[in-house]
Amino acid sequence: MFTPNCYEPHLPHSPARPPGFLRRPTMAQKPKVDPHVGRLGYLQALVTEFQETESQDAKEQVLANLANFAYDPSNYQYLRQLQVLDLFLDSLSEENETLVEFAIGGLCNLCSDRANKEHILQTGGVPLIINCLSSPNEETVLSAVTTIMYLSSPGSGSHPELTAMPVVQCMLRFSLSANARLRNLAQIFLEDFCSPGQLAEARSWRAHSALGIPLPRTEAPQQP
């Protein structure tokens, strides 16, 4: 299983975005629908634009809009019909951190719904989401932790990878973060989704290994 290289994300040096550009999917910024094409037609146009454009800026804006639509349960049927969940999952592998941020934000908005949750679990989305725990982008990590919590909720069936030891160790590290939002989410995960035995084992592993030491994503450990 993939082992997340967990460290506390930092945002101060994130690249600036143009005025009005969506920082993160929110209800207040939900895009307007052209009444002449209807909700499904508008979403289809967004998906088509994302697939056809070569502009990274356009892809970012389109994905942000799709993530905003994912906030509204009345859109879930359309988003499933247009395979937007798969589009979000595919975008998690992009090198563009902004695309990853909006993709995991969209999945976070969608996965409280049972049908959407099952689709993510059955199509191999869990490793891609766990991978987001290693992102240097604060919003990406927060959305990834929240998404893992939704996917781990009762009724999701048996998916032990969601609470595998590397994930629990990662959450333990986040629970000590200076970032209150990240710390609180991680503490909730540990309390609600991990057994006392898992926590004890994770703490033991952390005490006897270097897994908790943050390493730059682009650098390999030096050989002795």
UniProtKB/TrEMBL annotation:
Pfam families: Arm
Entry-linked SUPFAM superfamilies: ARM repeat
InterPro entries in the cross-refs: ARM-like, ARM-type_fold, Armadillo, ARMC7
Positions annotated as ARM repeat: 83-125
Domain of life from the UniProt record: Eukaryota
Annotated stretches, region: Disordered: 1-27
Stored Gene3D superfamilies: Leucine-rich Repeat Variant
Name recorded for this polypeptide: Armadillo repeat-containing protein 7 isoform X1
Organism: Balaenoptera acutorostrata
